[in-house]
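Listing 4. Sequential folding, example run.
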Amino acid sequence: MLTLYDHPRSGNCYKVRLFLALIGRDYQSRFVDVLARKNQTAEFERVSAFQQIPALTDGDTAIWDSHAILLHLAHHYAPEWLAPLPRIGAMHAWISVSANEIANSLQPLRLTRVVSNAEAAHHLGVSEALLDVPAMQARTDRVLLRLEKRLADHAWLAGGDAPTVADIACYGYLALAEEAAIDIAAHPAIAAWRKRIQQLPGYVPPGP
């Protein structure tokens, strides 16, 4: 049985919940109250080395980091979500964009909108005085520009006629863009790509 250590407001957890729904895998969910610091225990550290969510146990195997979880699930249960060899580099590059560029722009920008600055600073590992929201906005604008250019010419991020785990990785926080006060209508290629994902069989929306 798969067990997902989860929080309903986490975009990274949502990526995993969405992918599990798209591939039709049953799992049990364990709520981790990160706002109450319930992840900061020795017990949870045995599942997630950095005490972060999401984490997944698959039998005796524990996997943490949303992208590692997506790839684990695809390799073991849904290989059709992996790009073929000629495009596998593109798939991994866009997963890296999710883990780096999006994680350092849209993700923290949205966090400052949905929790207090003090709470956002805690989760980002900085002092509240170092929160630079205008810089987050500028980085987000650059990321959106690159995504818009890519999706203007490609239906899916890794190319080809079908989505890959790269699309789910990047979609997690782009599904929540409005919570970061982003007008997706100003990015029509991204908006069309979001709609394509929302029309996939098994799709589930973000949120509790």
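-- end of first protein; second protein begins --
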Amino acid sequence: MLSYMDLLRSLPIGLYLEQPITGLHRLDARVKFIWLMSFLVAPLLANPEWRLVLVGLLILITLLARIPLRVWKRQMGWLLMFCGLLFLLSCIMPDGLAVNHQPRLPEQELTFNQSGSTEPLPQPTSYRYVLFSQGPIEITRYSVDLAIRTSTLLFTLVYSTNLYLLTTASEEIAMALESLMEPLRRLKLPVTEIALTLTLSLRFFPLVLEEIQNLIRSVRTRAINWKKLGLRGTTQVWLTLAERLLQNLLLRAEQIANAMQVRGFTSPDQHRVEWHQLRFKAWDGVALIGLVVFWSIRLIWGGAI
């Protein structure tokens, strides 16, 4: 069983794979961001088949990019297990309100055939709304459709974002967003300040996880007997840990601010720092062509927008 610290390391937030350099690493951050937005928007109002295709496409991209198994197996494994559990729960849960209704016609009226016997009429098709019914468990077409929609949507949203953060450095993300938001400067929006804030935020996430891991280690090494503490004592311990975590995070933020001041940082516009040079390459053009094919299939086969 994974420990709490292993679970924290498995979180997709702020995780970046520096080595090895994969094909996704070499793509332009702007192209990858457009692909990410496509994966986030494409499931909306799409049919279940298209949602399953998106899940398979994300897994295929991970395999083709040759990302090491040790990197993504734990994250994808936990996510697939959670989505599978969500799928099963959605299938067996009721698909609507349990309301008893009175039929408009007598029960025997539709069972009479032309000869006057009471044998049931044969069904014109093999369609069945209830796919499985055994005791209190009943699975219908609507519940299966709802289960596919919810589980695939969760997987697509979480894993596509994780894959983007895994193969794109925070500096590249900031520069890509600043480049894509360049037209907003005409509206006098602080585009550079937004990009700088995003960069510092992405850099700060690993520090937050590190502080949480340190506090968890400190609690585990003390072997606290939670049963003897009771509810009041346990609450006091967790409040103390939360206060200590807040103090440590504020101290880290102050250290980052002091480091920027020592290096002569004044403002994003006056103290311009080029973290990463964006370059459009041939593979980026291939990725954009693939994006056109992706949306063409989505509009033709994936369902109405």
